[in-house]
Fold this protein.
Amino acid sequence: MKPHQLVIEAFGPYADPVAIDFDALAAEGLFLIHGTTGAGKTFLLDALCFALYGEVSGDRSVKGLRSDHAAPGAVPRVSLAFSCGEARYRVERSPAHSAPKARGQGVTDKPPQALLLRLGANGEEQPVAARITEVTREVQQLVGLNAAQFRQVILLPQGRFAEVLRAKADDREALLKTLFDTVLYERAGWWLDDQAKAARQAVQKQHDAQAVLRDQAGHAWLPYAGLAEADGADGVPAPRALGEPAALAAPVAPVVPTDQAGLEALVGRIAAVVEASAAARAQADAAFTAARATRSGREALAERFDRRAAAAAQLAELEAKQPLVLDFRQRLARAEQAEALRPSLVAEQEAAQALAQLEQEIRSSLLNARRAQAQAPALPLAVQALDLDVLPSPEALGSAGADLAARAAEVRELANKAQEASAASQAAAAAGQRAAAAEAQAAEAGARLQQLQAQQQQELATLAQARTAHD
């Protein structure tokens, strides 16, 4: 990971926007951040770590990172442009902070935000992640370190170097393995250990075989210990020449010296044999050492040739795959461009679906309108004149709509009059019913009156008869 530009605003002691161009500083290969105590040197490292991981180095907390000297409406943010390999990115984060309310008085709490963009060759920006956890995960994959490892190795806080030195061996080993990617060398070490173990076992087998051969030679020499080649003069056994085959030596019965001089000569010859044997052993050891060194050199040479052959085969395989890799890169570039056009394609498909649905609704509406036109001969002339096999023009629809509105007003007026006539008819019917009831009551009263009149006449006749009888 290589940083290019760091932008800080309303962050720590930096109230106003501050931009640091690392490319200009990196021209010398080394640069120094210096200043008085409290000037904000460590906050630059905190801003770098916060932009990548949403955390700060040292003992600070992510709470309260907003500058107390910034304007009330200023939004604290940190933006870092960096590159990993050939790809270039820009990550921007804003910590949680309080901001004035848009309406009324008081403040409101703003949540933290994060955004990761990939920068194209022409300056275009493609979103990679927009959620805090996703941005952190993508940055860890790009950088190859988590926040703790980044603080330990890249941004070691002040006063923490001793802690790294005093860390446990396992922790320091895991950190260094992750940092320097020593898996390949670790595997090579394992392979060399296996090869050395196999070589030691082979040497031990050779030593064991030599010991067995020495024991066998000792046992075979015992019956002939007193035999040697005669020198033909004094009868004292003479030592065999170094390297002379044993089959060429014709053993004869030993001649035992009878005087002191002969014994001393025999002892001298035995000493010469011992010295020659020691020299032969030293020569054999030197030859064995040289042979072992030659074998080691040849094994190392063979190993180098094997590695060279494997590397050549791998290179040939990679060169054979280069067109495929180029094709994959081109396809990936086209896929990235197509991914950028996905929202436009989706919008176009949705618009096409909406247009098809609208056309279906228009056809259904035209069918209903034709049915209504055929079933309603009293429609206005402008409506009857419409050609509903196709969608009429806006002017024709406007004229027909105006006539329909006028006719609708007339229909509503007639409906009101019909409603009033219906109400009057209902009132007349009720009055007729009441009149019929009154007529029925009148007829009943007339019949009752006639009955009473007849009864009255009968009573008068009876009264007259009674008076006549009385007189």
